[in-house]
Amino acid sequence: MNPIYQFLIHATLKKQKKSGRKPKKEDYKRVAFHVKIDFKYFLINAMFILIGAFVAGFGLKGFLLPNSFIDGGVTGISLIINEMTGFSISILILLINIPFIILGYSTISRQFALKSIVAISLLALAIYLIPYPVITHDKLLIAAFGGFFLGLGVGLAIRGGAVLDGTEVLAVFISRKSSLSVGNVILIFNLFIFLAGAYFLSVEIALYAILTYFAASKTVDFIVDGIEEFIGVSIVSDQSEEIRLMIIENMGLGCTLYKASRGYAFRGEKPKEVDVVFTVITRLEISKLKNEIEKIDPDAFITMNTLIDTRGGMINKKELIK
Predict the structure, then answer these.
(1) Which terminus of the chain has fewer CB atoms gathered within 10 Å of its CB, N or C?
(2) Within 13 A of 76's CA, how many CA atoms are on the CB side?
(3) What is the pLDDT of residue 28?
(4) Which of 169, 203, 223 is at the close of a domain?
C-alpha cells in the first residue's frame, strides 16, 4: 500500500483509539476506502488550484497590469490601488481578501477557507515571482484575453473548491440574508468598482474594465459547466438514508426525499423502489458533496440542475453539532 495512505489511515485510527473505542477490522477497511477517496480529491483539487493560480497570474501580469487595466472584485480594487499608489499588487490581493476568507470560514466551511487561502497565496506568489511576458498593448485584445485568462484561472480554482477573489463569498453571504441573488450582489459590487475606476483613473479604462469583467465572468461560467448561483442535486442510491444524514450532519444542509422506482426492469419484473435525495447547494460546495457521496456509494447516480434562485426551506446552513 502507498506509504501516504498508510500514514493517513493509522492517524485516523489513532484518533479512534484516543476516543476510547477500539478499532475493528471493518473500521480499517472503511477508513482505508475513505482515505483513498479523500487523497484522490485532494490531488485533483490541488491541481485545479495550482493551474488556476498560474493562469490567473498570466491574465493579470501578461495583459492587465502592464497596460493599467482593471477588473471587478478584489482584483479590481487591488489594481486601482496599485495604479494610484504603486503598492505591490501581490500584497494587496492578500490583504484585501482576508476579511472575505474569514467570512467564508463561517459561511461556507473551514476546508473552503483553507483552500482559498492557499489559492490566493499562490496567485500572489505567481504575480510576484513569475516573469510573465507582456503579450499585447492592443486595448481590445487586453480586455478580451486578459478577462479570458483571469476567468479561466478563477474557474479552475472554483473547480478545486476554492476562490481567487473573495467577493463571491460576500455575495453568497448577502444573498442568504437578503432578497438579492448572488449574481445581483456581484453586479452591484462591481458597479461601484467600475465607477471608482472611472473617477480615479479614466472613463475609458472603466469601460474596458466592463469588457474584461464580462469576458472573465463568461469564462468562469463555461469552466464550471454553466453552474450559476444555486445547484439542485438529485441523488439515486440504495444508501439514501446514509446520504441524507451526511447532507444534514456533515454539510449542514437540508434535503428532500422522493419516493421513486427504478425504471430499469424487464417485462414481468417489479421495479425496485428507491428514495431519491434532493438538495440545493452553491457551486462552492459541489466538490465536497461529490466527495462525501462517493465515500458512501461510489455507484450513486447524481444529476445536477442550475437554479436561478431559491427562497424558503433550509438553504442557510444550520449550526452543526460539535
Answers:
(1) C
(2) 28
(3) 64
(4) 223
pLDDT at 49: 94
Residue 168 CA to residue 224 CA, distance in Å, equals 14
Nearby residues of 305 by Cβ (< 8 Å), 6 or more positions away: 231, 232, 234
245 and 197, same structural domain?
no
The predicted model scores a pTM of 0.71
In the chain, beta strands by DSSP E: 230-236, 256-261, 273-282, 301-307
18 falls within a domain: no
Which residues, at least 6 apart from 293, have a Cβ–Cβ distance to it below 8 Å? 235, 237, 243, 246, 300, 302
Q: Kindly state the DSSP code that residue 19 receives in the 8-state scheme.
A: T
Residues 49, 123 within the same domain: yes
What is the DSSP secondary-structure string of 187-201?
A: HHHHHHHHHHHHHHT
Cell digits of residue 100: 472575505
Residue 156, number of CB atoms within 10 A of its CB: 25
CA distance 126 to 90: 9
Question: What is residue 175's predicted lDDT score, i.e. its pLDDT?
Answer: 78
Domain co-membership, 126 together with 262: no
Which one, of 74, 126, 125, lies nearest residue 101 by Cα? 74
What residues in the chain have per-residue pLDDT under 70? 1-29, 182-183, 225-229, 308-322
The pLDDT, as a whole number, for residue 308 is: 62
Neighbours of 157 (CB within 10 A): 31
Please give the pLDDT value at position 251.
87
Decide: helix, strand or coil at residue 312: coil
Do residues 301 and 235 lie in contact, with contact meaning Cβ atoms separated by under 8 Å? yes
Cell of 281: 447547494
